[in-house]
Design brief:
Elements lengths: L15 E6 L12 H10 L3 E5 L3 H7 L5 E4 L15 E4 L16 E4 L4 H16 L2 H5 L9 H5 L9 E5 L3 H10 L5 E6 L16 E4 L3 H4 L5 E4 L13 H6 L5 E4 L8 H9 L5 E4 L19 E3 L10 H20 L1
Parallel strand pairs: 1-2, 1-3, 3-4, 4-5, 6-7, 6-9, 7-8, 9-10, 10-11, 11-12
Helix pairs in contact: 1-10, 3-6
Length: 331
């Protein structure tokens, strides 16, 4: 998927040797195939794509590679790749690569996740607000839990949705939620430097993070899509959870460090929040004895909000757009 803000560029002259080591042991959609290699070569005809099924074959290609597409890269592997100019991962988080690249190497991260994660976010909001999750979990043993469900059912139309972390992914979530008739508030570190999205209406707002406390008491659904790091660690703590109204729900699709998990469990057990969906956690995989697992009105997902058969197709298209823009800027 080409970014709407990135004009198509002519294919960069090559040849470009591409070493690909994208293999996932559990999720087949995260394993690069010959089909994605063909997609890449159609977009970059000057590219020669080597799909490496293991680390050994990947390291064998590195001496000739100018581009590497990987889930992980080791610092010592730079010495094996003197011609390397681009190191790219489908992952969105800037904390993903734990390496210091040489000056000649540019790091690329995925910007395509919102198209998939936005659907997950919409599903979470609807499933909590319309009682779908409580019906099949909390009240699964009840023969006719109409009265229990009725107490928590609320319409999405007219609800105030706050998206904390209004970057590429947060903007996509807002775009997919807007047709439901919600009022949107996007919160980002420096709101003044960002353009207001074209799908915003008169009642929608883009606010800096310094205004978060003021907006939480009027929030119906809080969606957290923050990156990891010290700046976001436990940003949603006990004090901020207490600012949310009791009917509010919260969902986290960013990084697990952003929410104080113990404080969230306490708030849910006390009935001070209506529900929470977590796709990410401070410790992953989530430990079997985690208090999150048996907390009422809390639903845990195994870091799966971006899984889709189209995942690596979107990555290829996104990488090509970023690569072409980078190459054009260097020309």
């Amino acid at each position: 998927m080409t970014s709407a803000s990135t004009a198509p560029q002519p294919p960069p002259a090559g040849p470009w040797t591409v070493a690909v080591h994208l293999v996932h042991p559990q999720v087949s959609a995260w394993t690069f195939t010959d089909r994605q290699a063909a997609r890449l070569c159609r977009a970059l005809p000057s590219a020669s794509c080597h799909v490496c099924p293991d680390r050994e074959s990947f390291r064998a290609v590195l001496p000739e590679a100018q581009i590497a597409l990987v889930w992980s890269f080791r610092q010592e592997e730079f010495a094996l790749a003197p011609r390397l100019r681009v190191l790219a991962t489908p992952a969105a988080g800037r904390d993903y690569f734990q390496v210091t690249p040489p000056p000649a190497v540019r790091l690329f991260y995925g910007r395509f996740h919102g198209a998939i994660m936005g659907e997950t976010a919409v599903g979470m909001v609807l499933a909590m607000g319309r009682g779908l999750l409580p019906a099949v979990t909390t009240y699964a043993d009840e023969p006719w839990p109409r009265a229990q469900l009725a107490a928590g059912l609320r319409p999405l139309r007219g609800a105030h949705v706050v998206i904390l972390g209004f970057g590429h992914i947060g903007t996509w979530i807002g775009r997919l939620l807007k047709p439901f008739g919600v009022r949107l508030t996007g919160v980002r570190r420096h709101a003044s430097a960002a353009a207001v999205p074209d799908f915003f209406g008169p009642a929608d707002r883009l606010l800096p993070a310094s205004d978060l406390d003021a907006v939480l008491p009027e929030t119906d659904h809080l969606l957290v899509v923050l990156p990891g790091g010290n700046a976001t660690d436990r940003l949603i703590d006990a004090r901020r959870l207490a600012l949310l109204p009791p009917h509010a729900t919260i969902a986290n699709l960013g990084r697990g460090n952003a929410i104080d998990e113990a404080a969230l469990v306490e708030a849910l057990r006390a009935g001070r929040l209506a529900g929470a969906c977590l796709d990410v956690f401070r410790s992953e995989p989530l430990p079997a004895d985690s208090p999150l697992r048996d907390c009422p009105n809390l639903w845990c997902f195994p870091h799966s909000s971006a899984i889709s058969p189209t995942y690596l197709d979107l990555f290829v298209d996104d990488f090509v757009a970023q690569f072409q823009a980078w190459h054009a800027a260097r020309a």
